[in-house]
Design goal:
globular, about 400 residues, about 5% strand
Length: about 400
């Protein structure tokens, strides 16, 4: 038994390199996802799959399998290759966002999806855009460290790229555009861009946002009316205009300390988005304070390990990338959890690695793979430096 345990440990150390805590957190979140998606898709299965609940479970297994496969492949790639594709990826993301706005599949009054020819599923370009812009921002900030206080060489060009990407996302997904801008702003702050410059950029972005909303309000079929209704419902406390918010509160209230148990919460049949946007409310209802606290803790662990990995980096690019990835995952997670707890207006942000969905899961896993790659590379450099030091002594 001891020998078998040693062999398993050696196998894991040989193949699953990088930060093992992140591997563990991702695995636990994936297991929670399987349980909750299976538990909360009864209504969807009844409406669309002749009550075949196994369909969504198998679909979730497929995307998690693809995601963890992508995470494994990505974590074996050296971080310098991520820097090499940063510019190309942001250009590709912009092209796909434009195509989606013009010809995308319309869902919930927004063109967010791009149908892939010959494949049975759609692709959400904003998921690629988030990862691409974080990559680009990390690379740009790393290469311009010598000019970090000069706004014409750093803030202006980077602000234009960030603004263009966010504006392309905005018409279909306000919350993603706002979240991505906020994450890039935090990355600039970490990179020591002067605070007064960041405040100026935020003010300009606010004015551009107001102008964009004013223009979109005059475009037939825009989502401005939806954004306004959600904000008014939240501010006025009128849950009747969004029944899902009311059901989410009821689901959370029934959870208490230990929850009603998987599959036992009655509100899983009443929340159409209980497997995606409001999955945290269902976790709180079925697993109670202990289960929802565990999910919160796992995201905090990922952020903490991201900071540790960043501080262990020997060059600027992996440092900024690790911070950006940690923020990208945890900020989105906190937005979803706060919406589920009715502390924010409805946004449509999924819970990373947990909510049902394909492209979002795969790109989250790719992002975690990059984080693991940085961790792995940091350890290799450290070992090399220690070996050289020992040889010299």
């Amino acid at each position: 038994m001891i020998t078998r345990g040693v062999r398993i440990s050696a196998f894991l150390q040989r193949h699953l390199q990088g930060d093992l805590v992140i591997w563990g957190a991702a695995l636990v979140l994936a297991l929670i996802s399987l349980l909750e998606v299976y538990s909360t898709t009864g209504l969807l299965a009844y409406r669309h799959k002749a009550y075949n609940t196994e369909h969504y479970l198998l679909e979730r297994l497929l995307f998690l399998g693809l995601g963890f496969g992508a995470m494994y492949v990505t974590h074996r790639i050296a971080p310098r290759y991520f820097s090499m594709v940063a510019n190309l990826s942001v250009i590709m993301a912009c092209v796909l966002l434009v195509i989606t706005l013009l010809f995308g599949t319309r869902l919930n009054d927004a063109n967010r999806w791009l149908r892939l020819p010959g494949l049975p599923f759609s692709f959400q370009p904003s998921d690629l855009a988030k990862m691409a812009l974080v990559l680009f921002t990390a690379r740009f900030l790393a290469r311009r460290q010598a000019f970090i206080g000069q706004w014409k060489k750093v803030l202006l060009p980077l602000g234009i790229v960030v603004g263009v990407v966010c504006l392309l996302i905005l018409p279909a997904n306000f919350s993603t555009a706002a979240m991505l801008f906020f994450i890039c702003l935090l990355m600039m702050f970490v990179a020591r861009v002067p605070l007064y410059q960041l405040v100026g950029l935020a003010v300009i972005a606010g004015l551009v946002l107001l102008l964009s909303v004013w223009v979109l309000a005059r475009v037939p079929g825009s989502r401005v009316s939806t954004w306004k209704a959600r904000l008014e419902s939240f501010v006025n406390g009128d849950k009747g205009k969004n029944y899902q918010t009311e059901y989410a509160q009821m689901a959370i209230a029934t959870g208490r300390l230990t929850g009603s148990g998987p599959g036992n919460n009655p509100y899983r049949y009443l929340l159409p988005q209980g497997s995606s946007d409001f999955i945290f409310a269902m976790i709180a209802g079925e697993w109670g304070v202990l289960g929802s606290g565990l999910v919160l803790l796992l995201y905090l662990i990922i952020m903490y390990r991201s900071v540790r990995i960043a501080l262990s980096s020997y060059t600027a690019f992996p440092l900024f990338l690790a911070i950006g990835i940690g923020l990208m995952i945890t900020v989105q997670a906190f937005i979803n959890m706060m919406v589920g707890a009715t502390l924010l207006p409805v946004t449509g942000q999924p819970l990373p690695l947990v909510s049902m969905g394909g492209t979002g899961t795969v790109f989250t896993c790719v992002a975690l793979g990059m984080l693991l790659s940085i961790s792995r590379h940091n350890r290799l450099i450290k070992q090399k430096l220690e070996l050289e030091e020992n040889n010299e002594s």
